[in-house]
C-alpha cells in the first residue's frame, strides 16, 4: 500500500463513510504521536508541535495552511509562542476520513 504522505486527498461528500475502527488502528500505525480526540462526539486527529520561538511557530502554521489549500482539506490550527496544535477531521461527515490521515502524515513532513 502507498504510504499516507504519498497519497492525495479525494473529494469527500456528506454520505462518504468514515474510517472504520479496524482501518483506524492500521492507519494510526503510520502516524507518529498523533492522538485521537473526541470533541462534541466527533473523532479528530490532533498533535502539538513544538518550536523554539514564535517566528518558527508561525512559519510552520503557514506551511500547514499551504498544505490545506493544496489538498482542499482544512484543519483547525492553534498557534502560540513555541507551539502549534493541528487538528484534522472531516466536517462533512463529522468524523475521520482517509483524507485526515493523509494530511496528518503530510503535516509531519512540514517540520524543519
Describe how the helices and strands are arranged.
Elements: H1 21-28, E1 35-39, E2 42-50, H2 54-71, E3 76-80, E4 83-88, H3 98-108
Antiparallel strand pairs: 1-2, 2-4, 3-4
- Report the end-to-end length measured between terminal Cα atoms: 27 Å
**Largest sheet report:** 4 strands, antiparallel
Estimate the strand proportion: 15-25%
Counted beta strands: 4
Strand order of the largest sheet: 1-2-4-3
Mean pLDDT, all residues: 96
Please count the helical segments: 3
The CATH superfamily bears the name: Transcriptional coactivator/pterin dehydratase
CATH topology: Gyrase A, domain 2
Shape: globular
- List segments where confidence is low: pLDDT < 50 over at least 5 consecutive residues: none
Per CATH, which architecture? 2-Layer Sandwich
User: What is the string of helix and strand elements?
Assistant: HEEHEEH
Radius of gyration: 14 Å
> Which class of secondary structure composition applies to the elements?
alpha+beta
**Could you name the CATH class?**
Alpha Beta
Give an account of the 3D structure:
This protein is of the alpha+beta class and 112 residues long. It has a single domain, classed as Gyrase A, domain 2 (2-Layer Sandwich), CATH 3.30.1360. 33% of the residues lie in helices and 22% in strands. Strands 1-2-4-3 form a 4-stranded antiparallel β-sheet. A hairpin with a 2-residue loop joins strand 3 and strand 4. The longest helix has 18 residues.
